[in-house]
Design a protein that fits this description.
Radius of gyration: 16 Å
Structural class: alpha+beta
Shape: elongated
């Protein structure tokens, strides 16, 4: 996929209890709110698990991240469907095989409430 300034990439994911269990195992983040269900039977999704949404764009485009800024605005719960919108703010060649990228993002739950926003920057190494 060739990116350009102004491109908007959107996708969504519904977080499951299994997602939280696996992330708890990998990260060691065993906060009580991640393992004890609330009155509706939900647990809070780890912030960094939620933050994997905008990093998907980086992975899809082979970005070597240099900077990531996350502002966690509301909790995300298991069963929530989060839509992520990433906007390419900068995309420019630096050297013969490097492209600098800067993107901003916003993630909203199924109720259109913003749960996460921020930015990331890095470089894309072009394959010869």
């Amino acid at each position: 996929m060739t990116l350009k300034v102004g491109d908007m990439i959107t996708f969504q994911r519904t977080f499951t209890e299994r997602d939280v269990e696996l992330f708890t195992e990998l990260s060691g983040d065993e906060g009580i709110h991640h393992i004890t269900p609330d009155k509706q039977g939900r647990v809070v999704v780890q912030g960094l698990l939620t933050a994997t949404l905008p990093t998907k764009v980086g992975g899809d485009n082979n970005v070597l991240a240099r900077n990531m800024v996350f502002e966690f605005l509301r909790p995300v719960f298991t069963g929530d469907t989060i839509s992520c919108e990433v906007i390419i703010e900068q995309y420019e060649s630096q050297e013969k095989n490097r492209t600098a990228i800067l993107a901003t993002f916003s993630c909203r739950n199924q109720n259109e409430k913003e749960v996460l926003k921020g930015s990331f920057s890095g470089v894309i190494l072009q394959q010869n």
